[in-house]
Design brief:
The protein is built from 25 helices and 20 strands. By secondary structure, it is an alpha+beta fold. Helix 2 (16-53) packs antiparallel against helix 7 (240-274) and helix 14 crosses helix 22. It is elongated and about 100 Å long.
Length: 768
């Protein structure tokens, strides 16, 4: 083994270019794979750990107390498939005024519960103490951190509800309620529904949860179950932003793995072929065939291990900022996000060198079988007759001789040519996917900016600690419309609401006025106009199992109204819906707009307009919103980074192929120069030898990239792209992508081609 180690080390030092190529390929590939695995782990790990720690409910079920008794509900805990349960708890909806605890006005789902512990949904107390007496309430503070002790003691005295004092803030990963009171206090509120929390033995899928819940409630009267929320929807909401990035990160990671395998296999195979004489010498001086295999595997492993270590360090450095962007805005309670397990680095550190060894094994076994005499006498030239027929056909054409000679070279080494072509195909696939994603995201950003220049106007009030405006809601809108440069005004009222049968509070936005926003935001269906019409983003609809045309019941301030989903937005908060103004008038006629959006005519100075708005009333604040889009910036940045990495790797593969070809053909190059071939013709011949592969790679890689683009944009859970944003391919763009394959090949071939052109005839023939 000492001899193997010394021989491998010497070979790695002697073949510096080959060693550098292997190390750089493994570095880029390790970085790419680590980023993909880190995002996948960070998206699921924190939720699962926090949910298990709190014994989160697999299903939060609501029941109509007019149809089922508490005793009947308690007996469901003994049904087959139920691992644990808690309840029944009384459940009611109470009204809250605008600005209470910095919240939008609306409703809270309140549950009567004696303590935060229990077999299911163990609630974390953030501040204060648990409600222990009538008139006390604990509020679910779902965002990270705590609101602070200064808000303890705040009173809630809504119409038709008892006076309640906030004595604590808590968080529940199950999102089983917006607030909790004592069971005695809940009884005084005369609840019409009850809540049961279940953990089942097999919660792995939505279908199995539905079956388990059906089995648990099979003996209850028909219609007793009014709604259910599963932990799968909460998990989807938890990692929605990260999941939106995951499809294209995964695609780039897989492409990186494939390119790594191809290039490493190509490099090692070339190392064996170009090292025939070295193999023969090793065997002649006493190295056994197994030792020769060990020399070549060790020679490849040395740069691979170094590249893997550096790639793991680079991936860990890049993963932090990437995950910070991916998890921005996610509500997690006390779950930590943006961190990934150490197993990701371990897998990369162990897996990438193993992958290199696996790719190197086949060509190394070829060295094992090669007899010493044949290896020493083989030299570096290709075997006679290989590709000669193609060379003769091309030589008889009217093509310039350097071009015909270059086009025939790939046929001399068909296996190496196939590996190089595959690397170019994957490189073009990456460029095509990146181009398509960039086009889609830029179209998406243009759609967001499609309304033109806007000015956001907010009214003061208890919710933001500012002086309320002296003008009424209607007067503010009229004054805004009367300002010079106004092209349209849209008023917005925000309220917390409740969907019948669900424990989570939803945020309802009610709009009136200028409807130009929906011209760019509706993917399917239409904008809400009449009473009882709502629209929502794909995350909201998916997590609640809703589609365009479905009907639900919306409750606000003690009033209920049936509503129908008439459209789907391109995007939207997973907890928010948008409704027509007539719907608000039916549910809460006293609620007024707190925000206005003024759309400006072309050429209007937005800053001057904002100053004019604030001069109308001291209770108004105007701002010009940023028209940029963080999602677009993130996707374009990620795509650019990964495309640069994989294009570099593919070019390195071409570089290695051309370098090996020029070394193998050094006798031929010397003879061609001796009969008059100029250095420029040598460069043309060498570059042409891979330019054809680049064109073929472009033709194959473009359709693969287009398919990958469609798969990615169709599986972004938080955004539903319309067809117009997916159709980003045009003839000039496709022609440019076809040239991308040629550019990858030319860039990889240029350096070794120039080196071959500079070599003198005497030097080349002397080395033979």
């Amino acid at each position: 083994m000492n001899a193997v180690w010394r021989a491998a080390r010497a070979a790695a030092r002697r073949r510096r270019v080959q060693t550098f190529v292997i190390g750089l390929v493994v570095l880029c590939s390790t970085t790419t794979v680590l980023l993909a695995l880190a995002l996948l782990d960070a998206a699921s790990g924190p939720f699962e750990k926090a949910y298990a720690r709190q014994h989160g409910a697999h299903v939060v079920a609501s029941f109509d107390t007019a149809k089922v008794s508490p005793e009947q509900l308690a007996r469901t805990a003994a049904r087959p498939g139920v691992e644990a349960s808690a309840g029944p708890f009384g459940q009611a909806v109470v009204n809250v005024p605008d600005g209470w605890l910095w919240m939008a006005g609306g409703t809270l789902s309140v549950v009567g519960r004696a303590d935060p512990a229990g077999p299911v949904d163990r609630i974390d107390l953030l501040e204060g103490h648990w409600a222990a007496a009538p008139g006390e309430i604990v509020v679910n503070w779902s965002s990270q951190g705590s609101p602070g002790p200064e808000l303890l003691g705040t009173t809630l005295d809504g119409p038709g509800a008892p006076k309640l004092t906030v004595v604590g803030f808590a968080t529940s990963m199950s999102k089983s309620a917006s607030a909790w009171v004592t069971p005695g206090q809940m009884a005084a509120m005369h609840p019409s529904s009850a809540q049961m929390l279940y953990r089942f033995t097999d919660p792995s899928s939505a279908a199995r949860l539905d079956a388990a819940l059906g089995g648990a409630t099979a003996e209850l009267p028909a219609g007793a179950l009014t709604g259910a929320q599963t932990h799968l929807t909460l998990k989807a909401a938890f990692s929605a932003l990260a999941d939106s990035y995951l499809p294209f990160i995964t695609f780039f990671g897989v492409l990186g793995l494939l390119v790594s395998c191809l290039i490493v296999g190509n490099v090692v195979s070339g190392a064996v072929v170009s090292g025939y004489r070295h193999i023969g010498v090793l065997k002649a001086v006493g190295f056994t065939p197994n030792q020769v295999v060990g020399v070549y595997l060790t020679m490849v492993s040395l740069p691979a291990v170094v590249g893997c270590l550096l790639g793991t360090l680079a991936g860990n450095a890049l993963a932090g900022p990437l995950l910070k962007v991916a998890f921005t805005g996610i509500e997690t309670g006390r779950a930590s996000v943006g961190a990934f397990g150490a197993w990701v680095s371990v897998v990369c550190l162990a897996g990438m060198p193993a992958l290199v060894l696996l790719a190197a094994l086949a060509p190394a076994l070829r060295a094992h079988r090669l007899p010493a005499a044949l290896a020493i006498s083989a030299g570096g030239a290709p075997r006679t007759g290989r590709g000669r027929r193609v060379q003769r056909l091309l030589g008889g054409s009217r093509l310039p001789r350097p071009v015909s000679l270059g086009l025939g070279q790939p046929f001399a080494r068909p296996a190496r040519t196939l590996l190089t072509l595959s690397a170019i195909v994957l490189g073009v696939t990456t460029v095509t996917l990146s181009t398509g994603l960039t086009g889609t995201m830029l179209a998406y950003a243009d759609g967001i900016r499609g309304e033109g220049t806007r000015v956001q106007v907010s009214a003061g009030g208890p919710g933001n600690g500012r002086t309320p405006p002296a003008l009424t809601d209607g007067q503010i809108e009229d004054r805004l419309r009367a300002l010079p440069g106004t092209a349209g005004v849209r008023a917005r009222a925000l309220s917390q609401a409740h969907l019948a049968g669900q424990a989570q509070t939803v945020f309802a936005d009610f709009y009136r006025g200028d409807g130009s926003r929906y011209a760019y935001q509706i993917v399917r269906g239409r904008a809400p106009k009449a009473e009882g019409e709502i629209v929502a983003g794909p995350a909201f609809l998916t997590q609640r199992g809703l589609e365009v045309g479905d009907r639900v019941t919306l409750e606000l301030h003690g009033r209920q109204a049936p509503v129908v989903v008439v459209g789907e937005l391109i995007e939207g908060n997973a907890q928010a819906l948008e409704a027509s103004w007539p719907t608000l008038l039916k549910l809460a006629p006293d609620l007024h707009a707190a925000e206005y959006t003024a759309r400006l005519a072309p050429g209007t100075d937005a800053r001057a307009y904002a100053e004019a708005v604030e001069a109308i009333d001291p209770g108004l604040r105007a701002s010009v919103p940023d028209t940029g889009n963080a999602g677009t910036t993130t996707v374009v940045t990620f795509s650019t980074v990964f495309t640069a990495l994989l294009t570099l790797v593919a070019s390195l593969g071409v570089f290695n192929t051309v370098l090996l070809n020029t070394r193998e053909r050094r006798r031929d190059l010397g003879m061609l120069k001796s009969i008059g071939m100029t250095p420029r013709q040598v460069v043309v011949m060498t570059v042409t030898s891979v330019a054809g592969l680049g064109a073929a790679g472009g033709l194959l890689g473009i359709p693969l990239g287009m398919v990958a683009h469609r798969l990615v944009v169709d599986h972004v859970g938080v955004v539903a792209f319309p067809e117009a944003m997916k159709d980003v391919w045009h003839a000039p763009q496709l022609a440019g992508l076809l040239l991308a394959g040629v550019m990858i090949a030319v860039l990889g071939a240029l350096v070794p081609a120039r080196a071959a052109a500079r070599a003198t005839i005497a030097t080349v023939l002397h080395t033979e």
